[in-house]
Amino acid sequence: MAEVAIARADLDRREFGTRDAHGIFIQRLGKSFISRGNEIHALRGVDLSVRQGEFLCIVGPSGCGKTTLLRILGGLEKPSEGGLDFRIEHGNDPLQSMVFQEQGVFPWLTVLENASFGLTVRGVPREEREAASRHYLRQLGLIDFERYFPRQLSGGMRQRVNLARAFANNPAVLLMDEPLSALDEQTKMLVQEDLLRLWEGSKKTVIFITHSLDEAVVLGDRVAVMSHRPGRIKAIFDIDLARPRRALELRNDPAFVAIRGRVWDSLREEVLSSAATDRTDAR
Amino acid sequence: MSDDVDADKLAAGADKPAVSPVQPAKAPHEVFSSGERLVSIASPILLLLAWELSARAHLIDVRILPAPSVVLATIWELLREGQLAGDVRDTVVRFLIGLVFGVVPGVFIGATMGLFRWPRAALGPLVAMLYNVPRIALFPLVLILVGLNEFSNELMIALGPFFTMLITTMGAVMNVEPAYRDVARNFNTGTRHLYTLVVLPAITPALMDGLRLSLGLALLGTITVEFLVGDSGLGHLIWNSWTVLSLKQSMAGLIVATIVGAFFYASLSWLERLLIPWR
Ligand SMILES: Nc1ncnc2c1ncn2[C@@H]1O[C@H](COP(=O)(O)OP(=O)(O)O)[C@@H](O)[C@H]1O
Ligand SMILES: [Mg+2]
Q1: Torsion angle of alpha carbons A71, A74, A79, A81, nearest 10°?
Q2: Between 20 and 30 A from A156 (CA), which of A44, B40, B161, B178?
Q3: Of all atoms in ligand 1, which is nearest to the CA of residue A64?
Q4: Which of A29, A31, A32, A33 to mutate to test the pocket of ligand 1 (most atoms within 8 A of CB)?
Q5: ipTM, 2 dp
Q6: CB within 6 Å of ligand 1 — which residues?
Q7: In terms of Cα–Cα distance, which of A51, A44, A43, A47 is closest to A5?
Q8: Residue B121, domain member (yes or no)
Q9: Share of chain B above pLDDT 70, in %
Q10: How many structural domains comprise chain B?
Q11: CA of B25, closest CA in chain A: separation in Å?
């Protein structure tokens, strides 16, 4: 069993060019929960290799285990089987940080204090951490609001605070679980643009979970499609759209429409069979 | 680059701050129009006026319910005699000591029970049981165990705030939004920062609510204890005046006790705005 996993990882490293390539290697990962006496397999046999520096989007039907996968990567949950290997160079910076949904912003901290949170708990001196945080707040159009409390901001601005907090922490890997799903359509596109701009100027690896196919294709270098529960990686698509990308303009681009169609063909089956199992579960 | 940001702000109409910078949002307070405010001030005054007039017109028996003007005069009289100041002082001191005796261990034990499973398993059922005992029924027991002294008075006053703060704090700690804990864990937050930057601020609003309840309970406890065994304080004044059928003195004590309570409530609201500026 272990040998199979190692062989698979070797295969992926070869695929990336060199044997000791950098990236995140997920092998045969499984996770089950006990819920009301029943064992629920959220993930089973997830194989995925993420290249260092890429923007990888993951889509899948709801309940397929996307959140579970990301929480395992973020160290908030332990896998039941299989393993993951972060072969990422991060020097003195943290390995990974998560971008949470809106409710992950602390209401009792100001925008600036929220953005500095990761640096504060790492003991970075005030001057330094505020300078780093302000850099991102400025890029995200929040610099005039640094003394505000989150309650005083709109949803889009709160989500930008979340982004600023993760970027200011300067991790090598950013893990995002549907960070924009609570936003209205226009605000979402604007924050996507912000995110692309910040990421394109960095060398960070991003794993971005979304239920929106458009979002996945606009943002990702690759899009991984997950099967219905128990989730595994069903297919991976390369998104060969030029960078820098403009989230606002891309949506009518014929190349974009074509790729989205191909990914959707793969995802549609899973959504349909997921709906079917939901019906049998309910019975 | 900066062009993009400006365009964003223009395009996203919804992206304006909900509140202007000069006027940071306060705790959700109902805002009354000037007409409504007038009514809210006028109604107690009208009630007092009706009371006064009915007393003067002998519509109510002044031996049972003295007119407000008489009560006010009595308060003034008691103040001049110097007795009232001593009663207020004794009541306030008892009340504050009892409150602190209850709140501090209540918060401490409640937080411990909220944070750790073993203390919760050990003390949970005990607390649930004791909480349901009518507290005043414990007074004889306390008097026997502790003695007929000031300490047993303060212990009785402390019981209400103690249980209230214990249960409030435990609940608040256990109900800290899981997302906040996730953020803390993902950013490798150390114990000190976890408590000071996350748990403490997260439970502060609930603590203030518990404190408000405790305030009322401690005042109730103080007056009750003074009814039963006191030889000083507003409770003693109210009860003692009643037993000698001096109802205007009894009413005077009641009014002053109400003012004392209102003062502490107002202080708490002020403290709340200070401690929870983000609300
Ligand atoms: N803590 C948990 N306890 C029990 N079941 C869970 C838990 N977390 C997730 N699950 C279950 O695992 C499955 C996958 O959930 P999740 O990862 O949230 O899916 P997704 O994010 O793709 O919608 C769901 O069936 C969900 O009910
Ligand atoms: Mg999810």
Answers
A1: 120
A2: B178
A3: 22
A4: A33
A5: 0.88
A6: A 33, 35, 40, 42, 60, 62-68, 229
A7: A47
A8: yes
A9: 90
A10: 1
A11: 7
